[in-house]
Structures are given as structure tokens and as C-alpha cells.
Specification:
By secondary structure, the chain is of the alpha+beta class. It folds into 2 domains: 8-99; 109-224, Cytidine Deaminase, domain 2 (3-Layer(aba) Sandwich). The protein has helices at 8-27, 34-43, 52-62, 65-70, 73-78, 83-102, 113-124, 157-171, 191-206; strands at residues 131-137, 143-151, 175-181, 210-218, 221-224. Strands 2-1-3-4-5 form a 5-stranded mixed β-sheet, sandwiched between helices. A hairpin with a 2-residue loop joins strand 4 and strand 5 (221-224). The protein is elongated and about 65 Å long.
Amino acid sequence: MDGQIIRQDEVDSGGHRARLRRRLLDAGPDGFHDYELIEYLLTLTIPRVDTKPLAKRLLSDFGGIGPLLGSSADRLRREGLTDPTIAALKIAEATALRMLEARIEGQPVLSSWDALGDYLHAAMAHRRTEEVRILFLNAKNMLIANEALWQGSVDEASVHVREVIARAIALGATAIIIVHNHPSGDPTPSQQDIRLTRDLVEAGRHMKVTVHDHVIVGANGRSSMRAMGLI
């Protein structure tokens, strides 16, 4: 065929991809295994290769689809993935997060707590570095801004307290929710977490900014300091 040799494995992988695509278009994603979802994403940028073994290896190495999609580009490059393939995985992550975020937009945050928890877990639980995020709310507890203010530990609490309160005032927020992740997977608050929270509560009281909660997320779950009686 014009001097080209078509290998049997290319024919087989092409037929398999077509069947995956037809299943997805006809029945939607229900019934797909995690490895099949990743496999199909990989096919978008890796032509004429059976991507099932790679998909299964990545899921095994990273510990599941959440940690895989949530991994940094640098970590994925170390696994031998090219930038186009990494971009396919990251756009899947971004789309999933956008869908979860849409569930809390335009809703009082405190009345959509489960949806908020799902979003925060997906966005932060599998990060390998600690990140502190603040949700700024108006008087109706509607979300004004959702901002990652710093990365790293919650030490030097006094510096962070000034930063958070100043940002709340600049945004016209009347309440905040602190969120951060524990890369260890254990969402139990540390003494530094508790100290930061109490310092923020005290500073916020003087500036009429209420601290509703401090939520900690990890691969093993999430904890609420208010629910634990720490606020």
C-alpha cells in the first residue's frame, strides 16, 4: 500500500481505540474502568501504540486516577511522558475540577458543604507540597474569591495572619474559610494548624472578619476544625 508496511499491532490498537471511542459515544463513561479512561486520554497524543499497559502502570505507580491527574508536570515528565501527553492529563484534571467548582458557584458555601468538600479534596488532597488556600465570603456566605495564598507549612503564623486579613479587607469579605492539605495523607490538625487558626480568629474578630472553619484535606480524608471543636 504505497510502499508502507502496516504492522499487525497498529491495526489491533486502531481497532481497540475505535471500540473504546464507540463505547464512550454510545453509552458515556459509565462502566469504564479507570485504566480505560487514562488509556483513551493517552491515545490522543500517542499514535499507533497500545496504551493500555502504560495506563495501568501509571495508575499503579501513582496510586490511582486522582493522584495521577493531580501530579505536577515535572513529576509526570520523570515518568517519561511528553508535554502533549501531560497536557491531555492536565486538561482532564482541569475539566473535572471546573465541574466540581461549578456546584458551589452561586450557592451559600455553608449550605453546600459536601460539594465544597468534594471540590477541595479533588483539588488539593493529592498534592505533594503543602498549599494554603483561603475562601473569601460575603455577608451572604457566597464565594467572592478562592485563592492559594502561599505554599509550604503554616509556620510563621503572624506573617500569614496579616496577609490573610489584609486580603479579606481588600476584597470586602466578611468571612473566610481556611483550607490546606497534608501531603502525608493524614488530615489531623497539627499544633501549628491550630495556632494559625486561633490567631486568625482573634485577628478577624477585631476587623469584623469571621473565620468559619479551617479544613484540612489529605488522601485519607478531610477534617474540619469547627466540627472538632477547635474553633
